[in-house]
Amino acid sequence: MGEITNVMEYQAIAKQKLPKMAYDYYASGAEDEWTLKENREAFSRILFRPRILIDVSKIDMTTTVLGFKISMPIMVAPTAMQKMAHPDGEYATARAAAAAGTIMTLSSWATSSVEEVASTGPGIRFFQLYVYKDRKVVEQLVRRAERAGFKAIALTVDTPRLGRREADIKNRFVLPPHLTLKNFEGLDLGKMDQAADSGLASYVAGQVDRTLSWKDVKWLQTITTMPILVKGVITAEDTRLAVANGAAGIIVSNHGARQLDYVPATISALEEVVKAARGQIPVFLDGGVRRGTDVFKALALGAAGVFVGRPVVFSLAAAGEAGVSNVLRMLRDEFELTMALSGCTSLADITRNHIITESDRLRVMPSRL
């Protein structure tokens, strides 16, 4: 494998190792994939204003998320069907996240159940939820997650229908026959069968509830004591509604650019959401994080932490649990270095003054009279 020096390098290894259908499923975005590219490129347009001559011999990256103490503000995003990447799948990711002292979010569409993931040992875990048409299924799933020791629900709200992922359509994507969506085993929910286009898109059309609305956020609060994070918010208007409807936090996400194309990069939408939240609930960022510098930029714009998705599945495909551990370690090390070189010794030291965005640059342009 050679020396891996950054998390991006795992993608090329994953591409070589995985069947085309699996790799394309993880890697692709919706339609023209403009947002997929923009999720990365928008970070590159934010520059640093580092402070100097500050004692950075001791750096503290610890933080708390919903009251849970973690080693760094870098967490694992929900990514579906991880056993397509590696036989250990979600087990490996859960162990690596726990060893790194951070939070893993398990997908509803995992190839390991909530109980199986809990069996890997202690760790702080959140459960990502899609709301199915059959509310009894949702209720059962939430209760099982709670019993298995999961600490919060990440309610995905940007998927009333699945985005048009052309790679999956071309590949006639379907879950490999030896795998199942483990959380739904034994429930009469149909199978993800071969379809004329994407088997997943057909499955979602049949199962996921398009009527999902803010009243369902309220309903979820009646069936669980777990805090509910609303995942998929990118506007001030929806931020205010999330606060009004009792969300415990917001995850700024465009679903890894897999839903509606030509929405802004999450890092571009972040500040609008943070301002609208007015400090009432924490705001997290999901999407495009590949460097420790990205983590710093998100925190400087007001994020309480970031979630990382694709680097986890690509490193899982390349090297199993060791790969995921390495990704989390590299991001942590890069983030610590960025803090040191910016003159920050704790997360509280990271401020909006440490960065300059495109809009800042436009504001300070001298007039050309």
UniProtKB/TrEMBL annotation:
It catalyses: glycolate + O2 = glyoxylate + H2O2. It is found in: Peroxisome. It is an enzyme of class 1 (oxidoreductase). One of its GO terms (cellular component) is peroxisome. Its cofactor is FMN. Glyoxylate binds at Y25, R165, H255. InterPro entries: Aldolase_TIM, Alpha-hydoxy_acid_DH_FMN, FMN-dep_DH, FMN_HAD, FMN_hydac_DH_AS. The keyword Phosphoprotein does not apply. It comes from the Eukaryota. GO terms for biological process: oxidative photosynthetic carbon pathway. Pfam families: FMN_dh. Keywords: Flavoprotein, FMN, Glycolate pathway, Oxidoreductase, Peroxisome, Photorespiration. Its main location: other. PANTHER family: 2-HYDROXYACID OXIDASE 1, S -2-HYDROXY-ACID OXIDASE-RELATED. Belongs to the FMN-dependent alpha-hydroxy acid dehydrogenase family. This is (S)-2-hydroxy-acid oxidase. It comes from Sorghum bicolor.
